[in-house]
Design a protein that fits this description.
By secondary structure, the chain is mainly alpha-helical. 86% of the residues lie in helices and 0% in strands. The model has no long low-confidence stretch (mean pLDDT 80).
């Protein structure tokens, strides 16, 4: 929500410069004009995607450590497979359930 608020605030501030930016963009050739118009939206999307990746990464780390905190990992540790296989199986089940 904080990142979305920052993007919204930045868009609001940038709206005051919109006429000037539009005049400058119209003076460019079509390929550069499109890139100039798309740039703010691309930056906003990259910020949101990067934030979602960071949040997802730490959520997954918390899920793995939370699993150990409730001793559910004792079952997984008792299996005759490596930790890598265990993590990959959990990730596969999570991916399959989200489809």
């Amino acid at each position: 929500m904080i990142v979305a608020g920052i993007i919204l605030f930045g868009s609001f501030v940038n709206a005051f410069r919109l006429p000037e930016l539009r005049r400058n963009a119209l003076a460019l050739d079509p390929a550069h004009r499109q890139a100039a118009i798309e740039m703010p939206y691309d930056m906003a999307a990259m910020m949101l995607i990067f934030t979602a990746f960071i949040v997802g990464f730490f959520y997954c780390l918390d899920a793995l450590y939370g699993d150990a905190a409730i001793a559910a990992s004792c079952f997984w540790k008792s299996l005759p497979v490596s930790d890598l296989t265990t993590v990959l199986s959990k990730a596969t089940i999570l991916w399959w359930s989200c489809r």
